[in-house]
Amino acid sequence: MRAVAIEDLEPGMILARSIINDDMIVVLSEGTMLSKAHITRLGFLDIPSIYIKDEYELSETFQSVSAIFSPSSSFVSEYKEVITTAKEIFEDAKSGKPPVEKSRTMVTTTLAPMAKESGAIDYLLEVNHLASDVYNHSIRVSILAGVIAKWMMLPASESQDIIMAGFLHDIGKTKFPERLLDKQIDNLKGEDLDAYIQHTMDGQRILSGSPELSDGVKLAAMQHHECMDGTGFPFNLEGQDIHKYARIIALADLYDNITTEREGQKKRTPFEAIDRITSEMYSKLDPMICVPFLKHIKEAFLGSRVLLSNGLTGHIVRYSNDFSAQPLVRLTQDDIVDLNETPAIKIIEYNPK
After folding, report:
1. Domain that holds residue 208
2. Are 87 and 121 found together in one domain?
3. How many domains does the chain have?
4. For residue 6, what pLDDT band results from cuts at 50, 70 and 90?
5. Which pTM was predicted?
6. Residues 146-165: tens digit of each pLDDT
């Protein structure tokens, strides 16, 4: 790696070390490819330089050697390859009819096997900075939905249908005004909010013309913003009136939205997502889906290295009980901190084990 002054940064450079501001918030993570927007943002930070990967680290030789020791390398490669297909499907859907057969082939040959990989949750954290556009988001939600289905021990045929529902859940956004594509619902009001809500009904309408798709896939597109307590949209449905696929997609959608880097938002960790899911599992979300998700995702993070807001690093050793949102972190052999009892200390960065 090499240090480069902020004024000498260029788009395309790869960050070699995470950048953390004075509030102990991760501004940009290691491995991020710098864009013009990133560089502009860094210009406002009071730091003289940052570390970027040097020519050797970016060389084919280094990448080949690294790939041998990186269990995530094939997952990331598959993800990058499938982006092109996903983009084509969403472009085709603008005509009002999604290429269902192409979607099914992608789900069967690529997305379903990726969801079955034991490290899928970790690997998705490596790729989620690539883009927050609708087709990248849809790929990640699709894989996450497959992971959730696996953790719920659903039959293989149903799991594959849920993965399809995850991929097509936002197909209605192909009818979106361009200016709304990168917006978050929390920032919308008036006509913009109405247009956002409309994407759920547009999605169901687009999919309704494909008899080869199950009702669950079609309803997931329309109902994935409904909430168990009736506070969602577009129809304020409650509880079991919301299709199971939509309830699964709602959880996957929430997790991805929290853990994906977006312009104008600070980067958030999966532990913030766990905290949010824990707080909403008996109101907006379905506890029958949240409980297995939280159990397995917490197990997936055991042993992982984390950076805390007090500047110390440690490893996750356990959770104090099944409903604790935050883990216990071992700082030294004899020093373990329970983050549930020390709310002032947060995990600000997670590194897969």
Report:
1. 70-297
2. yes
3. 3
4. confident
5. 0.81
6. 999 999 999 999 999 999 99
